[in-house]
């Protein structure tokens, strides 16, 4: 195969395509240590931004270039970080397909809340690492009893994963926005918005929104929690499965 068609030679190619494996671990550096340090840096950053310099500093390594021997590239590091979080996702054993997807969704949501950056980076690279493939394989096994075509089975899985990742992405961006504008709590946001809401209330504009904004019950737990939305999705998928069957 020529270098022009060899995936390992394509800029930004997936780390899983790379040969040979990373060099022997040292007391200070290994692929696992680099990935763990990068995840710690991402967890601490507002939007999960990671630089090789920050990872090197966390590891106590003078030159960031030393890290590339273990991860190949910045894209390779992202591949490894994302796949490490996929390894935290638990899929219930094959049996009831709905329980399988419910467990997949809830476990992914838990992982996203631990690592909000995962929701952003998971969309940026193809999920072909060993942990990601194991997650998809287990989920597909849970759907094996349904008489559905391959595209529909994967569509079910992507619908559940997509909801968890999209919810996580919204969480990540809201957290960054609140930090940027200095309104970290709902109380601070409400206080800042009060003069504006009072003005548009007096003007009589947006009456339905104003009625909601002035309702004290709006602070109660909304029905569109992740768990509830997931149940709605599964209800819809169940009807689709029955129709396809």
Automatic annotation (TrEMBL):
Tetracycline repressor TetR C-terminal domain residues: 92-239
Record Pfam families: TetR_C_1
Ranges for region Disordered: 1-27
Annotated keywords: DNA-binding, Transcription, Transcription regulation
Superkingdom of origin organism: Bacteria
Gene3D superfamilies tied to this protein: Homeodomain-like, Tetracycline Repressor, domain 2
PANTHER family the UniProt entry points to: HTH-TYPE TRANSCRIPTIONAL REGULATOR RUTR, TRANSCRIPTIONAL REGULATORY PROTEIN
UniProt protein name: TetR/AcrR family transcriptional regulator
Gene source species: Pseudonocardia alaniniphila
Lineage: Bacteria, Bacillati, Actinomycetota, Actinomycetes, Pseudonocardiales
């Amino acid at each position: 195969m020529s270098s022009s068609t060899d995936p390992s030679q394509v800029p930004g190619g997936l780390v899983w395509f790379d040969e040979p494996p990373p060099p022997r671990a040292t007391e200070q550096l290994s692929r696992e240590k680099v990935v763990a340090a990068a995840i710690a840096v991402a967890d601490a950053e507002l939007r999960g931004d990671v630089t090789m310099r920050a990872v090197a500093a966390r590891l106590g390594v003078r030159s960031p270039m030393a890290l590339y021997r273990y991860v190949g590239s910045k894209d390779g590091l992202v591949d490894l970080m994302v796949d490490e979080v996929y390894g935290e996702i638990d899929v219930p054993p094959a049996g009831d397909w709905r329980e399988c997807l419910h467990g997949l969704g809830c476990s992914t949501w838990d992982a996203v809340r631990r690592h909000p950056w995962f929701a952003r980076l998971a969309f940026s690279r193809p999920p072909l690492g060993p942990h990601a493939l194991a997650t998809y394989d287990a989920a597909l096994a849970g759907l094996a009893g349904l008489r559905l075509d391959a595209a529909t089975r994967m569509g079910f899985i992507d619908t559940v994963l997509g909801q968890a990742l999209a919810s996580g992405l919204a969480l990540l961006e809201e957290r960054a926005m609140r930090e940027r504008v200095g309104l970290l709590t709902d109380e601070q946001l409400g206080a800042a918005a009060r003069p504006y809401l009072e003005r548009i209330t007096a003007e009589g504009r947006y009456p339905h929104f104003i009625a909601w904004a002035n309702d004290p019950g709006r602070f109660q737990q909304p029905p569109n929690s992740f768990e509830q939305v997931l149940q709605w999705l599964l209800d819809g998928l169940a009807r689709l499965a029955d129709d396809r069957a």
